[in-house]
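explain this:

___
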Amino acid sequence: MLIVGLICQAALGALLLFGGARYATRREFMPYHRVAAGRDWSSYDAGTQAVILALLRIAGSAMLGFGVINLALAYDTIHDRGIWPKLVVLAGNLILTSALLAAARAEARHNEAPAPVLPALALMALAVAAFILTTP
C-alpha cells in the first residue's frame, strides 16, 4: 500500500505543478472564465486585467508551492520521518483544494461555464489517499 500512497503523493504533486504553471503563466483568463464572466478578456480595462492576472498568479503560485511540498513529502515518506510532516501537508492540501473546489462550485452555480469541479475533487481525493496509504 505504501507504493500506491507514494504514487498518489507524487501524482498530486505533479498535477499541482502542472495546474499551477498553467495559472501562474496566464496572459489572460481561462476559457471557462470567459463563459462565467460573460465577457471577453479584451472588454476589461487594463486595471481590471491586472487584478485578474494577479489573482491567477497567486492561485498558480500556491499550487506550485504545494506541488513541490507534495513531491518532497513523497521523498520524505521513503525515509519514514513520522506522521507530523504528513499531517501538516494534508492540512495544507485540504485548505488549498477546498478553496479550489469552492471557487469552481461558485462559478458552476452561477452560470453554465465548465468549471473545474472534478479536477478539484480529484486533487482532494489524491491528498487524502496519499495520507492514508503512506501512514502506517
